[in-house]
Amino acid sequence: MIAVRRTVGAAAVTALLCTGAVACGNDSGKSGDKASEVSQSHAEVTQALTAAYKKTVDAKSAKVEMVMKTPAALGAGGGTMKMSGTMGWDPTVMDMTMSGSAFTAGDADMPKSIRMVWQDNVMYMDMGAKAAADMDGKRWMKMDLGAVADSAGDEALSRQMTGSLESANQDPAQQIAVLLDSPNLKHLGSAQIDGVKTQHYKGKLTVDEMMAKNDSLKLLDKADRDELLKNVKKAGIKDYDTELWVNEDDLPVRLDVTMDSAQGAVEISEKFSDYGAAVKVQTPPANQTYDLMKMLKELGAAASGSADTGV
Question: Considering 57, 100, 200, 301, which has the largest number of Cβ atoms within 10 A of its Cβ?
Answer without folding.
Answer: 200
